[in-house]
Amino acid sequence: MTSIYASGGCWPTRDQTLLLRAALLDAPAAIEAWEEWKRRNDLDYLEAGTFRLIGLLYRNLVRVGANASDPLLPRLKGIYRHFWAKNHLTMALKEGLLRALEDKGIPCILLKGAALTLTVYHDHGVRPMDDLDVMVPPARTHEAMDVLEALGWKAEVHSPRELPISIHACSFRNAAGDCVDLHWRLCHLPASTEFDRTLWERRLPLEFQGHQVSVPCFTDQLLHTCAHGPQYKLASPVRWIADAFWLLKRGGEELDWDRIARNAPSVGAVLGVQGTLKYLREELQVLVPDRGLEITSKVVATLQERWEARLLSKNLPTPWHRMPVDFSHHLRCSRGQPWWNRVRGFRVYFRHANNLAPGQFSAHQKARVRFWVRRWLPWYLCHFPLLFLRSQDGAVHKLPKDAFGGFHELEPFEHRLVRWSSTQASLRLGFAPGRESKVEIDIGGMRGWKKDLSNHLRFHMDGRPVPANCVKARRGVLTVYPPGTAGELPGEGRQMRTLSWSCHPAAVAGDPRALGLPVFAVRVCTLSAADVARVQDRMDSASGQDPGNTAATKMDASDWARGRVAEHSSREG
Amino acid sequence: MCEAPSTEPFRWVLNSPSVVSETVEGETIVIHLETGAYYSLEGSAAECWDFVMRDGRDDQAVSWMCGHYGETRDVLSSAWKEFTDALQRENLVRKENFDEVQLAGTPSSEEAGGASAGSVAFTVPKIQKYEDMREMLLLDPIHDVSAGGWPQTA
């Protein structure tokens, strides 16, 4: 079976797995997970997607008999109550809509949160909802849109009546800010006609606030959950694991694994189903039926789906980033049409998928091109020959983006690229294990040392201050000798450390930003034994000559040497 | 406006589907979905609400209260009446005529723990009402995350 969940992206992190275990398992596993989660996390700083699990967590902790004197329980109870009240109000506010659809004779199926709350959880406080997802038959979509608009709901997309040919749903909002998602397909990718027909035939009828509605059968809800869940969203989608957990429990023998295996490829859910089952089995010890595992593991995900899954598990912040996956989805949606029509139709699909007004995307891109021509083209033209030269080792534009903390954007300066730091900034750097190292920061001579930086620039390595006499400047390059970079035992791969600094802002005419150090390049160099001795001598003499210089920090050069000696001795020991 | 006293037997029932309630660890929360008002019932109020949900007959309720609380029948009867009047004023419950035969299977007040004089200290059941909760409840903190999203692990 393909394993796609193990490495971050949209799949639960270690802490989220602990919270899922606490929210879903029986005692003592749930209690142990909860205690460990509390040790590692702070309830005040919860990521939004994880926060959605709190209602479920509270109910399960009470069920498994968690310590009643736990100071966090009253807060969890408050959050549960909030979810409970909010879900009731969210669903009640849509009662008029359901009545209007019923009056018009338009059948509807409740999806996602509403369906799960009414048929799986049977508790309004465990799965918070922000909107109501309603599906109507594709042939009656326009009628349903008329009903919504007559009730004062307004589509959040441009030209909603053009959508059904390409997209699966659209959102409507009323004056009070309530939201309804009107679906005409279950998933974003079209399933087979046989699936769409049997989806309606197999639906489970129920009464909701006095109206006859229905929800998809457990099998279709599980397929939908696995297709919709493992995708990167601004709030992490972790609750899909809890949904799948309960669908498996409630569905039990009713789950039609053949149907899931038959339809997962068309809705792009092969990897989602396989990964979810694997996660449930390995992390939550769910007894997935052997038949289910056997049937779903035989389905092979296409290269196209693998590629889409890889993209969808990452943050795609702009339409540009989403364009490849949109194109792939469009090819699936337009299957059966002539190739030329498929390619031509992408423009409309892309516009609908990203909710863009006609011409909006091209106007935005034109503006970006104009900016590039004005800002960057002159630099490239002036320095074109230099592009062929070997670029500087450790140049700032080559460092990974996540290495920078508190930096301004990359910008050209003369023939090089520079990133200004703020007055407080940090760099995440890799150090060779078992070797003392120095860090060279090329600041291009844009800030002076003696009269400027030496008076206020302070470095820290992993939060520990670097003595002032461990920083040297020569020809526009700052050399920092941070103590204790030898780190742990040798041979464990590069060790990531954070070099941070604070300084007074630089005064640059016409630039209102708070500018710290101009960084052109950063290099980490290991020191030989001779270098180490030389540096130590220099530090010792410097601290002897100028004791006042070390007053700014609590450490001095001897600490540097002691740290090195201690680390060497521990290595030998 | 006063209703003419009805001679037919009645019981109190939840005014559904406009009203929903849930009891969480001794505290009952009630929402009137049409007005958006939020109610909190604790202590004896939550216990009386629970009896409304289970049986709803006045005489049975008072008998149960006599068996549960260490208080005189007059005091409890008056407190029950005030409580149900308050619930009715807020449209949380309504009267429903019933057939004695239909309620044959409902546990009596004795079965519910009211056989002998009770010893639990009685406090007058009070309903806490919050009318300004609707907008707060419908806030959307989940979708208020920044465009940066949440950090991905490597």
Kindly list the characteristics that best describe this protein.
heterodimer; A: alpha+beta; six-stranded antiparallel β-sheet; B: 154 residues; alpha+beta; globular; disordered C terminus
Count of distinct strands of chain A? 17
Beta strand % of chain B: 15-25%
What does the radius of gyration of chain A come to? 30 Å
Task: Please mark out the parts of chain B with pLDDT under 50 across 5 or more consecutive residues, or reply none.
Answer: 142-154
What does the largest sheet of chain A look like? 6 strands, antiparallel
Helix count of chain A, per DSSP?
Answer: 23
How far apart the termini of chain B lie comes to 69 Å
Work out the helicity level of chain B: 25-40%
In whole angstroms, the N-to-C terminal distance of chain A is: 45 Å
* Element-level helix/strand string of chain B: EEEEHHHEHEH
- For the secondary structure, the number of strands of chain B is 6
Category by helix and strand content of chain B: alpha+beta
Order of strands, widest sheet of chain B: 2-3-4-6
Radius of gyration of chain B, in Å, reads 20 Å
Q: Based on CA inertia axes, which overall geometry of chain A fits?
A: globular
What's the mean pLDDT score of chain A? 83
Strand content of chain A: 15-25%
Largest interface: A-B, 38 and 28 residues
Parts with pLDDT < 50 across at least 5 consecutive residues of chain A: 1-8, 545-573
Q: What oligomeric state is this? A: heterodimer
